[in-house]
Amino acid sequence: MPLHVALTDSRHDEETLSDRGVRDPGVVGFTGGGACGAERSGRQIKVESETLSSRDLPPSVRPPSQEAQDCPPESGGRLAAVSSRRSTELAVAGWDRYAVLGLVGEGGMGAVYKARDPRLNRLVALKFLRSSDSGLVEHFFREARAQAQIDHPNVCKVYEVGEVAGLPYIAMQLIQGGPLGEAMQSMSLEQRVKAIRDVAEGLHEGHRTGLIHRDVKSANILVERTATGEFVPYLVDFGLAREIKAEDRTIFSVEGTPCYMSPEQVAGDLRQLDRRTDVYGLGATLYEALVGEPPFAGFPPLDVIWKVRTELPRPVREIDHCVPMDLETIALKCLEKEPHRRYDSARALAEDLQRYLDDEPVRARRASWVYVGWSKVRKHRLSLGVGALALVALGMVGGVALRARVTAREQRQRAEEVGALAQEIGQDAKEMELFMRYAYALPLHDTMREKAMIRARLSDLERRVTASGERLGPLADGAGHYALGRGFLALGEVEEAVRHLEQSLSRGYDTAEVSFAAGRARAMLYSRALDKASRLPNREAQEARRDEIAREHLEPALRYLRSSVEGARASMPYASALLALLEGRLDDAYAEGERAFGAEPWSYEARVIQGDALRGRATLSEDRGEHELALGDLRRAIALYREASAMATSDPALYDAQAEAWLGVMRIERHRGADLRAAYEQVIQSCDQSLVAEPRRAVAGANKAWAHIHQGWSLYRQGEDPRESLREALAEAEQAMQWGGPDPLAYNSIGAASWLRAQYEAGIGLDTEEPLRRAVESNRRAIEMDPNYGWAHNDIGIALGLLGERAVARGVDPRRFFSESAEHLDRAVALSPGDPTPRANQAWFHAQRALYELEHGVDPAPSVEHAIAHAESALKMRPGHVASHNNLGLAYMLLAEHLVVVGGDARSSLEKALGSFAVALRSSPADVEALRGSGAAWALLSRVLVARGEDPEAALRAGREALTAALAVAPADGEARLSLAALDRALGWAAVSSGRNPRRAFQAAHEALMRAHTQNPRSARPLAALAALHRDRAMMARRGGRAEEDIGEGLRRIRGALSLNPTLPAYRALQGALLVLKARGSRDAGVRGGLLQRAHDDLTQALAGNRFLSREYGAVLAEIEAMRPVMGAGGAGRGAGGAARRGAEAAVQAGATGGRKR
C-alpha cells in the first residue's frame, strides 16, 4: 500500500479502489485483466484482500458512529466513495498526538488516514499496520526510521513512528495529488521528463542512505500541482514494500509489479538486487511516460515475467515516432537485461535526462541487434561471417526473436555495410592521425597548411557519415563520429573531438577505443581548465574553480577511461598513466609514464604525462609553502616537455606546456621577491615557438599576457617603470581573445594590467581615470561571463576604491565609488570565504573611507573599526599575510591622526600601527608599503612627542631609516618623500623648542617636498605641504623681520593645491592662515582689512566643512575677530590681536598640523 494517496476529483461511480491506494504491494496479486493495465491508465481493480475496518480495531480505537456522520467528506474521488461505507474518522481514547480526520485508503496490511498534527498544525498521512508479528513490526519501524533519514524534496518525508492502542503507526507527509500514471495525461513531454529526473535524484538520495526501493513504478510516484501550475513528484513507499512482505516469501518470490520489475527481480534472485534494480523500475516508468504504457503491458502476469527475462522491450519510437531518439536511448539503457549495462546509479540517469533537457548529447548507449552484431565487426574480424554475426545477435537476447521489422536478409546486408563502412572510415581516422604525427615531427614550422588539409578531409568525412547514418542507422553514425573525433583530436581541437566522440558513444558505438579517446579528450579539456584556474591569484578561488571543472571534465574523463580499461587495448601503460594522473595518483602516473615510454620510445605523449604529474606535485608543494620542492619539480617537468618537443618539434601544445610550467616558476619567484627576468624570457620564447607552429594560437597569446603581467609587477615593486610590459600584456590578451573568443580570465588579465598601470602612474602624477575605468570595465565583462568569478569582484572593488580616492583628490564626492567598491569586495569575500586577500582589501577600503571622513569632519571611528576588524579577520586565516598587516597599520595610523586633531593621546594607536608594520617587514623586509607606513607612523609620533615636550630623537631616527630603505627600493615613491618631509618638519619644531635654529631641518623638508612635487606635479598634497612649511618658516622668520617671501610663496603653493582640489577644507583653512600672516605685515589699513576678511571667509568655510580643524585654526579665527574692531586704526590691530596670534603660533609649534593633506 503506498504511503500516501491523493484525493482526486470524482470521476468514477464504481465502488472500487484504484491501485494507487489500496492494493497491498507486498502481494503479487494480479487480478482482473492485464498485469499492468491499472498502472498505465488508471484502470481499476477489485480489492480481494482482507481489509482493515473498524471492527478490526481495538475498542479504544473504534470510531463512534455519530462522529463518522459529522466528518466532512474528502474531496470526492473513488477512495472517498469507499470510505463512505465505513467510518471516516478515527478516535483514540486519550490520544492527543493526532486528530484523525478521515480514512484515505486501506488494504490487507493496514490503513492510511488523513490526520492533523496539533503540535505543528500540519496535515499528515497516518499509516497503521495491522500485525501481531513482532519481527514484521520491527521491520516496519526500522525501514520507516531509515526512510526518515532521506532528506530530499522529491521523496515523501517520514515524520514519526510510534504505537497507540497496540497498533504501530507511521506519520508521513500528506501529498495532495494523484499518481504519475494519471497526472501524466495532463503533462507535457518536458514536464514528464523533469518529473522522472526529479524522482531519480530522490531515488539516488535513498540509495545513498542504503535503501533499495524495489517497487519503483508510476503508482508509487505521486504528483502535486502547485498554484503556479508546476508539477512536483514524490517517490513513496521507499523501502517499505520489501519488508512488509518479508514473511510471505516463497520459492518464486518476486517483489514489485512485473511490468516495472527487472530481470533479476522476476528471477527471484534476491542477492543481485541493488540500486540498478531501481534504475530498471524507473526506466520502465520513463518508458510509460513516453508512450503511455510500461514495457510488456497488456499481457498476463506469467507472460510478462517471461518477456522481462527474455525479450527486449519494443523500441519506443516504433510505438510513437515523435518521441526524441535520445529519450528512447535513455529509457532502453535503463531497461538493459544485464545490470552492469544500465546506468550505474539513479544520479547518472538524472544527469542524462538533464542533458536531454539542456539539449546536450546524452551519454546513454542502448544494446540493439546492431550493437550486439557489431561486437564482432568492430574488431574487423569479418571472416567470422555474417551468418555467425546473426547467431551471436540472436543468442544475446535469450533465443527469442527480435522485434525488428526488417527481414533476415536485410539484417545481414545492413551488418555487412556497417562493417565495411567502419573499416573504411576507421582507416581514414588512422591516416589523419599519422599524417599529423609526421607533420609534428618535422622541424619547427607553421602547421596550418597540414591542418587545413585534415579539415578538408574531415568535412568530406562528415558528409559521408551523415549520409550513411541516415541510411544504415545509429551505429554507422556512431562509427563515423568516432572517426571524426579522432581527426579533431589529432588537430588539437579538443572541444570538437569531445563532441563527436560523445555522440559516437551515445549512438551505441561504445568500444574500449572510443571510451579511451573520449577520456583522453576530456582529460585534455580538464588540464586546460586547470591551468587557467592555477593562474587565479588566490587559493580559495583556485579551489572553487577546480571543483567546477572537476564536475565538468574530470568526472566524465574518469568514467570513460575506467570503462576503457575493460577493453583489450586499454591495458597499455599510457592509458594507465593517464588514469592515474586524473585520479591524483601522481607518483603512479609518473611511473606508468616511464613504463609507457619504455614500451613505445616514440610515444612522446608519455613524457607529457610525466611532466604533468610533476607539475601536479609542484602545485601541492607550493600550497604547503615548500617552494624549493615545487621549483625543482617544475624544472624537471620542463625538461620532460623539452624532450617531448625534440620528438615532435612542431606540436604547439608541447611549447604551451613549457610556457605554463615557466609561469609557475614566475609566480613562486615573484612572491619570494626574486628576479623574474630569466623565467620571463623562457615563457616568451616558448610562446613564440608555439605561435610559429600555430600562428593564431589563443593559449599562447594568453600565456604571454600573464608573463608580461608578472614581469610588470616585479618591475613595479623594484621601483622601475612597468608600463612597457603592461602595454604588451594588454595587446597579447586582446589578441588572444580575437583568436579564441571572449574569456573571463583574459578580461581579468586586462583589468590586472590596467590596475597596475594606474598604481604606477598615480605615483608619478598622471591622471589614472582612464586605466582605472578600463580595469573596472574589463572586470565587469569577466563578471558578466562568470558571475561567481571572485577575483574579478576583488579587482573591480579595488579599482572602484581607487576611483573614489581619485575623486577625493579632485574635490569630488567619492561615496558613489566607495559604495560600489564595498559591494564587490563583500561579494568577493562571500565567494572566497577562506581567502584573506578580499578581506585585506576590505580593510583598505574602509581605511580610505575613514580618511575621507577625517578630512571632512565626520567621525571616522566606525570606518576605522571596520578596517581593523577586516584586517584581523584576514590575519586569522593567514597570520603572515603582509597586505593585511599593512592595512591594519594604516587603520591604526588613521585612528592616531583623529586623536591628534581632537586633542587625544595617539601614542597607543601609533604603537599598534608600528607593530603591524614591523610584522609585515619580518615577512617581507623590502616591502615598500610596510617601510613607507612605518616611516609615516614614526613621523606622526615625532610630532606628538614634540607637542608633549618630549625628546623625539629615537622616533626621528627610526623613521628616517624606514623611509630611506623605502626610497632605496622605490626611488620615485612620492609618498615616502612626503613622510620624510614630515620628519624634517618635526625636527625643525624640536629645534625651535630647544632654542636652536630650525633652518637646516626646514630646508631638508623643502627639498624632499620639491622632489615629491616634481615627481607628481598633479598631486595637491606636495603643494599643500610646501604651503604649510612656508607658513612655519614665515612664523619663525617674522621674529627676524623676513617673512614676506615665505608668505608669498606659501600662498602661491596653496592656490596651486586648491586649483587641483578646491573643496578640501584643510587647504582653505591653510590659505586663511597665510592671509592672516600677510595682513599682520601690512601697514595699509584698507589692504589689511581686505586680507583679514578673505581670511575670515576661508577659515569660516573650512571649519564649517571640517569641525576637526577648530583645534588648529580656531585661534587664528579668534585673532581675526579680535583685530576686526580696530582694523581701520592704522597699526593698532597688531597689538589687539597679539594674544590670539601667540595662541595660533603655539598651535603650529605643537605640531597640530599633523593631519594628512591632499
UniProtKB/TrEMBL annotation:
It comes from Chondromyces crocatus. Residues 9-23, 40-49 have a biased composition (Basic and acidic residues). This is Protein kinase. Residues 1141-1151 have a biased composition (Low complexity). The keyword Ribonucleoprotein does not apply. Keywords: ATP-binding, Kinase, Nucleotide-binding, Transferase. It is an enzyme of class 2 (transferase). Residues 98-357 form the Protein kinase domain.
